Amino acid sequence: MRRALAVVVLTTLAGCSTTPLPAKNPQQAWVDMTMLGGKVVMAERLDGVRLNDGRYFQVTPGSHDLMVRYDFEIYAGRLMMAEPDERTCYLSVRYDGFQPGQRYVLETRTLGMTPSARLYDQNRKVVAEDRDINCLF
Questions:
Q1: Looking at the keywords, is Signal present (predicted)?
Q2: CA count, 13 A, side-chain hemisphere, 51
Q3: In sequence order, which residues have a C-beta less than 8 Å from that of residue 14 and are 6 or more positions away?
Q4: Confidence band, pLDDT 50/70/90 cuts, at residue 21
Q5: Would 13 be classed as within a structural domain?
Q6: Does the residue 40 lie in any domain?
Q7: End-to-end Cα spacing for the chain
Q8: How many domains is the chain built from?
C-alpha cells in the first residue's frame, strides 16, 4: 500500500514539475521567487485572490499586494542537535510601482524563527519589504 501511494505521489509531483511556465506578457511585470534557507516558497495570493500556480506572479502595472507561503525549519531547543520543527508563514509585500515588461524577485529568508521578505527590481534594488507576517506553529 505504501509503495502504491509513493508511486502516485511521485507521479503527481513529476507532472507538476514538468509543466512549463507560461509565456511572459510584455504588458505585465513578472515576479520570480527565491529563498535564502528554507524549504518552500510559493506564490499564494495576488491582491487577495488565491493563485492556481505558485511558482511566480505576473502582474499588471501599478500597485499590488503579493502574499507568499514560506516553509522553513526552526530549532526549538538550545541545542542544535534536536530535530528541527517546520514552520509555515504567510508573508505579504505591497508594491505600488510595478512596471510593464520588468522582472522582479521576491526573496524570503529567516533569521532564527523570524522570516522576512524583500522585493527587488531588476537592478537588485530593494523596492518593498514585508508588511505583514502570519505564522502557523
A1: yes
A2: 18
A3: none
A4: confident
A5: no
A6: yes
A7: 31
A8: 1
Pairwise CA distance, residues 111 & 74, whole Å? 10
Whether 7 is in a domain gets the answer no
Residue 1's pLDDT is 47
C-alpha cell at 131: 508588511
In degrees and rounded to multiples of 5, residue 30 shows phi and psi of: -110, 135
Q: What local confidence, expressed as pLDDT, does residue 78 receive?
A: 59
In-domain check, residue 11: no
The answer to whether 31 touches 57, Cβ cutoff 8 Å, is: yes
Tell me how far apart the alpha carbons of residues 103 and 7 are, in angstroms, rounded to a whole number: 37
Task: Kindly report the pTM of this predicted structure.
Answer: 0.80
Q: 31-80: per-residue pLDDT in tens? A: 999 999 889 999 999 999 999 999 999 999 999 999 999 999 887 665 65
Q: Tell me the H-state helices in the chain.
A: 2-17
The rounded distance, in Å, linking the Cα atoms of 33 and 8 is 28
pLDDT band at 16, cuts 50/70/90?
A: low
Instruction: State the Cα–Cα distance between residues 39 and 41, nearest whole angstrom.
Output: 7
